[in-house]
What does this fold into?
Amino acid sequence: MSLSNCGFVLATDLDGTFLGGPRRARRRLYSWIEETRVQTGLIYVTGRPVAFVSDLVRTGHPCPDIAICDVGTSVYRISSDGTAVADADLEAPIAARWDGATDRVRRALAGHPGLTEQVLPFRHRLSFDMDPARLTSRSAATVRTMGLDLLISQNRDFDVLPKGVSKGPTLLRVLDRLQVTPARVLTAGDTLNDLSMLVSGLPGVAVGNAEPALLSALDGLPHVFRATRKGAAGILEAMARRSLGPDA
It folds into this structure.
């Protein structure tokens, strides 16, 4: 079924959000999604690489209609057996903005204190484990000088991204291309790398275990619900407020 025909689409972060919270809540949410799949769409919006998503599907988690991976820098179609295929059409603007910058970024940040490159197969992004006690302002300045974006989350991840590309902008472009009505979407997240998604104007929920920095950044935004429950339970809490889901 096309996402454009779904009455509800959940666009959710994974770690700490869709995969977080009490086991009972996760089972209830996942079962409801599968039982209502004719009318319910699912988009994973994660900082994880696509291999992580494929493994989730192979181990019985709901298969997403679309997987937005690598903090919004890659977009995949996932089959029920976990096979992933990059959507070249949806990725074209991302690739153009990155313009093969991986080696340039690697050289520019070589030797910067507090940064250790993550050895993962990113295509339109370069990420580092960060030691905040050793990091200097020179690293952020270097990224800005290159015309790229910097995202720091959980005080440990230092992500260099194409200019203007992150979870929120990529999700909006995917929804527009697939003709999904924004009012039918619920976004969900728990860390600062979910901020661009939650401030995009789409209905959203910050789950109960959201990091304080994210909650602070969301002050004054009436379209984002602050759940009291953690992870999947927080998603269910937000869905019930919209008369959706098993707890509605």
